[in-house]
Amino acid sequence: MLVSAKEMLNKAKAGHYAVGQFNINNLEWAKAILLTAEEMKSPVILGVSEGAGKYMCGYKTIVGMVKGMIEGLGITVPVAIHLDHGSYEGAYKCIEAGFSSVMFDGSHYPIEENIAKTKELVAVCNEKGLSIEAEVGSIGGEEDGVIGGGEVASPDECKMIADLGVTMLAAGIGNIHGKYPANWTGLNFEVLAKISEKVGDMPLVLHGGTGIPEDMIKKAISLGVSKINVNTECQLSFAAATRKYIEAGKDLEGKGFDPRKLLAPGVEAIKATVREKIELFGSAGKA
Ligand code: 13P
């Protein structure tokens, strides 16, 4: 069922668990994530970065593919297709293409401009029944060419953006996209607690889910995080399983070169990662 992320995230916030956003790159990714969410009876958000959107031949291709899969695979759990770190123009393109959710990342603009653009997009999304995520305080690291300095968000600015009526809010709290460096000091729970207090019922989003230790994930959820984004970890699992298959020479045995065989271990590895995260986030059985 293709839905906006609003209801699933409000339920998650009230029920003290988080829904996973797993980014997709191609058919195998989308299929692995949808099948795992269905198997675990969990709501799920498919994240699409602008780079991944281009790679998959545009947003309309993605909407068509995901809608087709929901029908073809008999997916009954709530599924949202969500633009990840969207630009202002990208958000409009996804709204038009039939996404059910968008993120407008205005964190690199001065706060006044972030507010003005977010406000405009909130009105459009409300009218069309889409959920919308906004961001305050950039997320560190690099994702698909989008580089963030890893600021810690100001709780007052979070309150200003939350008051615009966004569905969910991403706030930088020392989180980073990709692998965490050895000298990473961890999530800033003090700031997260302050943001939570200011924004009340608004579901908070934790980006950079790859490599955050389990105890920190659980603590973040207890402090109001209701959506956790995971991208790199599925890529690493897929690559490791594919490497193992090739290094074992399996592509050279019989029809092992058939892409449906060659990519199968990678797909199973993505499923295992998604399963593990859904368990950890507590969204299993919540569909
Ligand atoms: P990771 O790649 O670190 O898991 O981050 C994903 C993310 O935050 C997508 O927006």
Give an account of the 3D structure.
It is globular and about 60 Å long. It is of the alpha/beta class and 287 residues long. It has 12 helices and 10 strands. 48% of the residues lie in helices and 17% in strands. The protein has a single domain (6-281), classed as Alpha-Beta Barrel (TIM Barrel). Strand 4 (101-104), helix 6 and strand 5 (131-136) form a beta-alpha-beta unit. The model has no long low-confidence stretch (mean pLDDT 95). Strands 1-2-3-4-5-8-9-10 form an 8-stranded parallel beta barrel, surrounded by 9 helices. A two-stranded antiparallel sheet has the order 6-7. The termini are close together. Helix 10 (232-247) packs antiparallel against helix 12. The chain binds 1,3-dihydroxyacetonephosphate. Residues 23, 47, 84-85, 143, 177-178, 207-210, 229-233 line the site of 1,3-dihydroxyacetonephosphate (13P).
Number of domains: 1
Distance between the termini: 11 Å
Strand adjacency order, main sheet: 1-2-3-4-5-8-9-10
Rg measurement, Å: 18 Å
Please tell me the overall pLDDT: 95
Count of discrete alpha- or pi-helical segments spanning 4 or more residues? 12
CATH architecture label: Alpha-Beta Barrel
Helix content: 40-55%
Q: What is the string of helix and strand elements?
A: HEHEHHEHEHEEEHEHEHEHHH
Short structural summary:
This protein has 287 residues and is an alpha/beta fold. The chain has twelve helices and ten strands.
SSE layout:
Blueprint: H1 6-15, E1 19-23, H2 27-39, E2 44-49, H3 50-55, H4 59-72, E3 79-86, H5 88-97, E4 101-104, H6 111-128, E5 131-136, E6 141-143, E7 146-148, H7 155-162, E8 168-171, H8 189-199, E9 204-206, H9 214-222, E10 225-230, H10 232-247, H11 259-262, H12 264-281
Parallel strand pairs: 1-2, 1-10, 2-3, 3-4, 4-5, 5-8, 8-9, 9-10
Antiparallel strand pairs: 6-7
Helix pairs in contact: 2-4, 2-12, 5-6, 7-8, 10-12
The site of 1,3-dihydroxyacetonephosphate (13P) has 16 residues, from strand 3, strand 10 and helix 10.
